[in-house]
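=== Structure Prediction Worksheet ===
Name of assembly: unnamed complex
Input type: mixed (protein and possibly other molecules)
Chain count: four
Listed entries:
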Amino acid sequence: MKKTYDAIVIGGGINGCSIAYQLAKRGRSVAVIEKGRLADKASGAAAGMLGAQTELTDDGPLFEFARKSRAMFPELARELEELTGVHIGLQNRGMYRVAATEKEAIELKKLIEFQTKSGETAKWVSFQELMEQEPHVSSSLIGAMFIPNDGQVDARELTIAFAKAAMLNGAEFYEFTNVNDLILGNEKAHGIQTDLGPMYAESIVIATGAWSPFLIEKTGLTLPISPVKGECLSVLTNKPLIKGTVFSHGCYIVPKKSGRLIIGATVKPDTFDERVTVDGISSLMEKAKRLVPGIGESELERAWSGIRPLSKDGLPFLGEHPSCRNLYIAAGHFRNGILLSPATGELIADLMDGKSKDSGPFRLSRINSSVSA
Amino acid sequence: MKKTYDAIVIGGGINGCSIAYQLAKRGRSVAVIEKGRLADKASGAAAGMLGAQTELTDDGPLFEFARKSRAMFPELARELEELTGVHIGLQNRGMYRVAATEKEAIELKKLIEFQTKSGETAKWVSFQELMEQEPHVSSSLIGAMFIPNDGQVDARELTIAFAKAAMLNGAEFYEFTNVNDLILGNEKAHGIQTDLGPMYAESIVIATGAWSPFLIEKTGLTLPISPVKGECLSVLTNKPLIKGTVFSHGCYIVPKKSGRLIIGATVKPDTFDERVTVDGISSLMEKAKRLVPGIGESELERAWSGIRPLSKDGLPFLGEHPSCRNLYIAAGHFRNGILLSPATGELIADLMDGKSKDSGPFRLSRINSSVSA
Amino acid sequence: MKKTYDAIVIGGGINGCSIAYQLAKRGRSVAVIEKGRLADKASGAAAGMLGAQTELTDDGPLFEFARKSRAMFPELARELEELTGVHIGLQNRGMYRVAATEKEAIELKKLIEFQTKSGETAKWVSFQELMEQEPHVSSSLIGAMFIPNDGQVDARELTIAFAKAAMLNGAEFYEFTNVNDLILGNEKAHGIQTDLGPMYAESIVIATGAWSPFLIEKTGLTLPISPVKGECLSVLTNKPLIKGTVFSHGCYIVPKKSGRLIIGATVKPDTFDERVTVDGISSLMEKAKRLVPGIGESELERAWSGIRPLSKDGLPFLGEHPSCRNLYIAAGHFRNGILLSPATGELIADLMDGKSKDSGPFRLSRINSSVSA
Amino acid sequence: MKKTYDAIVIGGGINGCSIAYQLAKRGRSVAVIEKGRLADKASGAAAGMLGAQTELTDDGPLFEFARKSRAMFPELARELEELTGVHIGLQNRGMYRVAATEKEAIELKKLIEFQTKSGETAKWVSFQELMEQEPHVSSSLIGAMFIPNDGQVDARELTIAFAKAAMLNGAEFYEFTNVNDLILGNEKAHGIQTDLGPMYAESIVIATGAWSPFLIEKTGLTLPISPVKGECLSVLTNKPLIKGTVFSHGCYIVPKKSGRLIIGATVKPDTFDERVTVDGISSLMEKAKRLVPGIGESELERAWSGIRPLSKDGLPFLGEHPSCRNLYIAAGHFRNGILLSPATGELIADLMDGKSKDSGPFRLSRINSSVSA
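=== Predicted Assembly ===
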């Protein structure tokens, strides 16, 4: 085992792997340290929606960042497939954010107006128009906001593709390896203590999602990120129930290959407990049946969960530690980790390169001002 | 492969294996032919309740037969464990058949009266008494019929124990073997055609549950048995939610080892489709939460189904074919296959031995009179 | 349930689904009857190699048919993805048929010569050239025949894609449905008896792989097809061990997405027993480690098996029953079911349409002459 | 969540749960903190052999402790089953430690002599005698040491039974909860920092197996325990291949219920990587086939691994921290965690109670003398 790298990335989830890929591509020697398997936690649990317009509904900096990241996918998919042979499952059959009440319809129409002004495509489809496209949705719906550009990927495949692409550019991956401590000194990070012994690097990135606060705590900084469990299930059906993703308050249904539909996701704050509960799954089943009644007859395949990292102000933390040089953080992506991974990888690499000076609204120095725990 | 046996049993489920054990124990050479694995269909899907008093609520011949069979379990458990080392999980922590309405309470009290007259133990427990024993049941219940003698076993283990005990007495088992046809002649069964070639026997027993009608059809007899799918799920909890089995209209909850609870079962008539549906599982979850609210927080483990054989008059078919000698049938046990297996094995063996002359209410000659399809 | 169709296809494996797709696309009303799930048997177990040149080494009619079928894949992949959204995983990173001895090298060189004459591309690569392309293969190898055009697909996805494409053209699929008998009369097939009742059609196709002889037996014809079990395993590795498929006598290693390698396959004749044995898996592991030593450190994922239909003369049976009109058979594809499925679907549809008059070397009338059992 | 306990046990494996049970039974308020699920690591991976005489072959203190612990099982099994309803699968069909060479035979005969002097039962069985008892073992064996008193349990069930028994005595269990730090002060442990916040106790026990050194490191003590991966597989067979456990150098085969045999275990030092490798499983398969050739035909069920804690001198660490009062350690049981769990639970509880003054050879003060890392 080599002991010294240009960069060490802690965390083999979607963002750790994207960062490792960007760094390795730019010629840096990189090690990725993962306590279990790659894509084993939230990244492997994600449904893979690229919901820049569906999920991010106000005019904040995250909307901007999300649109930028979403735009990177087509080129990225080609690049990764060429390099690694992995097909990341990028698909774009559109997303329907449905309205069940007049109030929801009014809100969605406002959102369409705002997004249209921002230069994005979004349009209102009446119930009749919706039924023409998606004849199996519930007849109790009023209409939907249709977002043609919010596609989806296979989240696990994308993570693996990033990792393999990084490896092919020389990155080394250590799975089943614990990071027990940071090696700090002189207001600078020098390396990490692992079960395999110490490892040193010019730059260290913490990208361990909901688990990020623990290691960072050792620097004296309390990172205001909390764990939020999301439970999902998948069902199988040979009937073409939906073509696009159907998204409502509290439930989404994402069509995947081979007649698989992913139904998600519950929101259970402040827990690392990964167990999938009867309450969680039965509530998702009820909601999904209300959206697409034919789901009742589909086959239950399996259920799982992921622990998502929610930051106090809803924005991820991306950038250098405020008081410890060479230590970078990329965490707090909540439900948008897959969508934001291309832009996150690029931004962290740009910050290290000096191509970006600052991560603006995502910088860590906002802690202890507006977002302190 | 030997070609000639005293008896061939078609079907490696609970009743086929029980019959094989009885025959082998009595010195007969026996072959069991199973198209897949042993205990792979309804027998492996069963929750293992021995609900003689819980399930069989009228004073018919099945109640009698069920009580007799239930009484055989303690000795059988010892015998099988001694012979095979398999612990069949016989347990008796009692069963509660609960009442949610006054009407149900009145019916259960009548049932208690009837069963008491029949010499069985059953008593009414008030809501207060119920809560003392099972403090986690719903506070909306009125009370319950408590049946101390309706225990449970591990249905799969029992099937395997019968099979191993049969093997130790010389029986041969052919798994993954199809029976393509019966070899008939002169109003008599002589053998079977299998993928492994023909096999011959003095006696042939068809014990293939819901699939029994297909092979029997070749004798010109339409066996009035239909397939009824039952879906189940299991949940895990470290909380001691229930000690005894809780049974209501449409849902039962059976405590198993290691904090596992089995929740069953839906009743979907006329289908061989084994897929577990969203509708089925969500309805069971709702019912179980209404009985024991704490189940909502328990962990979903898995879901499965079994196809149970329902006869037209509700009684199993046990005995010789009405017009084809040496051909026996043991099928149609519906939800009571596990409970009835000891008595079924003994009865079929007794009929072959001439120890019993007739299977009375279970005889096949009742077809084409009251129960014809 | 509709009762009358233009065509009924029995068997929801790769060839049944391909035939159904061709027929539905040509405007016929089609029903597919499958006793379990689609792609549940040999089709779901296949590694998906399109080994027209790798597997078919003599100049027989099958080589011709296989080349034709292989050539259909690129267009088919586009067509199916456009229609159904399913990505069938068509890949072409070439296949290496390796030589471990001089004798094998000589044979492969002869084969290259023959194939080159047939107009196909195949070339000898020395050990040095092999190591440049595939640096992780064993240093004990001598060289390899490189076949750039033998690609691969995801066999299960292709089956599902055929099925969904058929459905979108109006075909109906009945899973978990048994066909209990053929309805014959006047030297013609009229329909089938199923658990759901009788169904009638102008044409009936039997495409039930190794199970095909059973139903056909009822017509008095003994179809000389026997079941051959093939066991496989998959391993996971993050190291890029091989890029192309490596194929040797008795073992192949197929790289799949996400670092999965499929290692196959044993050849166990005359059995329907699907159990994966210790002997089978340990022998595959040993062979794979001899080909690519680094496989020893990879992670065992899972093992499975499929029952492949081997015809007596090695050629599939494709065409109309010799003495029973309207009854078609498409079975006996042995290890080449995935590769041959596009051409099989087209041929059966052409025969029904009268576009082909005869299936030549694959016709059923050859039974009872050279190939009788 | 309560914040203050008499005792906190870190680690929900077999020894943590045994300790919690002993403490709770003695009236202490106890919390168990487990980062994942109970019995999820080495305890759930164990084959459950109680090999006091089979595994511990020299006359050290561990042999004494192991014999004492083994003797506690019959009473413990009764106690736990009565309390919790969990059947821990205690079985005693004896163990055969086989000899394949004359040299091994001589060593085993010496061991028999020594153990007999120690008052234990062990006898030499010749090849003929062995074949009478175990007719399926390899004919290449010379004989075996037969140990009638080394039985087995179901390791996972025993862990769960300890936990449930502790709960029924008031203990609280926190699964999926990380312990991030110890709260130390004044040469004393006061509590722990968890994701759920701080928790305080009079006594804190670290029972986290191979992961124990990490938390203890914070006290300045380097615990000389290293992780050793052990891979296992299970096979299924309906043939009664072996009745007792067969144990040889490098491989053991343990018969479990329902025809399951567990084959273990590899020994891979210095790794936390839980992945099951092709090398590991193929070597176990080869060894098992050499011991019991019929295993070759049995069905591969699954493979898994556990990370076992090996201490530098081979003895577990049991007792109070040498320089930090109230902090107890129970770790380093290597392959004997299941066997030693009853005595471990009792010893730790006795030390806390003052019933034992010292854990003698297992005390922690031996670190930095003979066993320092």
